[in-house]
Amino acid sequence: MRCLELYRVLNLKRVFFLFFLFVSFLHAKIVITLYPIVEVKKSDVLLKDIAKVKSSQERLKDFIENIKIKEVDRVTKISKEEIKNRLRENYIDLKSVIIKGSNRVIVRRAIKKISQIQIEEDLRKFLYKRYGKNIEIKSIGIGKKEITLPDGKIAKKIQKRNKSSNNIYLNYELYVDGERYLSLPINVRVEFFTLAPFAKRDIPKGKIIDFNDIYFKKYPKRSSRDCLTKEDIIGKIAKRVIRRDSVIKRYYLLPNFKVFKNRNVKILYSKGALNIELLGLALENGALGDIIRVKNISTNKVIKCKVVGPFTVKYID
User: Fold this and answer.
1) The CATH number of the domain covering residues in 257-315
2) 238-253: pLDDT as tens digits
3) Does the domain spanning 113-192 belong to CATH 2.60.120?
4) What is the pLDDT of residues 56-111, one digit of tens each?
């Protein structure tokens, strides 16, 4: 019942408003002067966007100015007849209306343009911020030379979809007033770089490499195996002759084992003030710092030990 009462009240208000308009028309003339060409920011075109409205009744003038005439995407034409039809649909008596000015109004939607150069700049900033100096951009595949957007608050978003050894696949998204307007898939051809180790001098086969033998510089990255650090190199043995200024590959190196498989080792055990030396058998090779399996000869128990020197390991809990 309350809903029915509310409906009746609202209906009554509408009747009163229409009655007010009717009474206003008895005493007021409305003059509408059409503009020849206008530019609008919104898709909804109101009468006040395309014409100047004059009336002695302010509320009536406000009502007529805000009548929606048409929706526009880019460019459209609005005739006097279309305007008259919209006035009739809104209960406006055309006998009290004078329409002057242009016979038709050309309405253009205000637009913004983003050039291919701007898109490329946005993508370069995104990639350099993400990868820094470890990337070189070879080419950017943009399908459009220019993007046209309706006027409004423009926001951009770049997302990485996928990546291969030489390509990065991106989505370039544009938002107008908070709503996504366009998503443009883009392929960027790139070359990745890493800081790679190079020989500072000729390194003979069998030499234990130290810090004075190497330096680092930018080098194309082919795989994760190319990413050698100084910790990966220093202390290793040169498996072959490594020429000056040549990149040092992982397979050029041999571990500098201090402990060898099936050879006896000294096991150091310490707990508090207690220090014991035991005899053990290494079950695998180990370089300095490696954790290996060792058999305690006196108990035949296999334990984990850390390599701390030549043929010497330390028991770890």
Assistant:
1) 2.30.30.760
2) 999 999 999 999 899 9
3) no
4) 888 888 999 999 998 887 788 999 999 999 999 998 888 889 999 888 999 988 88
Kindly report the number of other CB atoms within 10 A of residue 225's CB atom: 10
Instruction: Out of 2.60.480.10, 3.30.230.10, 2.130.10.10, 2.40.30.60, select the CATH number for domain 2-109.
Output: 2.60.480.10
Query: Is the C-alpha dihedral spanning 175, 176, 178, 181 positive or negative?
Result: negative
Collapse the DSSP code of 8 into the 3-class scheme (helix H, G, I; strand E, B; otherwise coil) and give the result. helix
Whether the model clears a pTM of 0.70, i.e. scores above it, the answer is no
CATH entry, 195-254, from 1.10.10.10, 3.40.630.30, 3.50.50.60, 3.90.1210.10: 3.90.1210.10
| Cβ count near 270 (within 10 Å) | 11
Give pairs for 131-136: CB < 8 Å, separation 24+.
Answer: 131/192, 133/193, 133/218, 134/192, 134/193, 134/194, 134/221, 135/190, 135/191, 135/192, 135/193, 136/190, 136/191, 136/193
Q: Which two tokens stand for residue 109?
A: 């939607």
**What is the token pair recorded at 259?**
């402990």
Least confident of 6-10, 256-260, 307-311: 6-10
Q: Say which amino acid occupies 73.
A: D
**Nearest alpha carbon to residue 87 among 102, 66, 115:** 66
Residues ≥6 apart with Cβ < 8 Å to 290: 259, 306, 307
